[in-house]
Amino acid sequence: MKIVFATNNAHKLDEIRRILGNRFEIVSLEDIGCHEEIPETGDTLEANALQKAQYVYDHYGLSCFADDTGLEVEALGGAPGVHSARYAEGTDHDSEANMAKLLRELEGKDNRRAQFRTVICLIGTSPLHLSHEGGPLFFSGSVSGTIAQSKSGDGGFGYDPLFVPEGYDKSFAELGAEVKNKISHRARAVEKLAEYLHSLES
Known about the structure:
single chain
């Protein structure tokens, strides 16, 4: 089964392919010749994921899923949340700038509890639409943890060097892809997506 993952982020694409395994052919936006900058103007993770998946489905007629992920920090009222990739002013996916701002915002705060949350939206052609009459499906996953005082580890991407998942004493960046892909927010959302996709094959 061929499905578009609406991303050109090589890290995310590799992570998704590892989690889903080889039962599905997951292709990127580049693979289908989509070079447009798909807008992400929603004010929730769900809205952004839907916006991206709907764009590909409407313009290319292909089954597609898209995700949006946010880091939600309790002491900051859930920020950066939907703005996680552009948290530092005037930047886009600048991880170093985003992490630097997050550490500044948490200076002097004892509560460093946070969670990563991923929402996946799936829109599909037959047979994907058979179970939900063509409408979008949403799958979500989250992982709780804390924000470290400083960065550690050189693996992963985004806020991984700062996020220490619950039950561990190392950051996502230190734990490595194998561990992260078992416990991460994206892994949990993708697991739900995979369960649905596998159910179509039975």
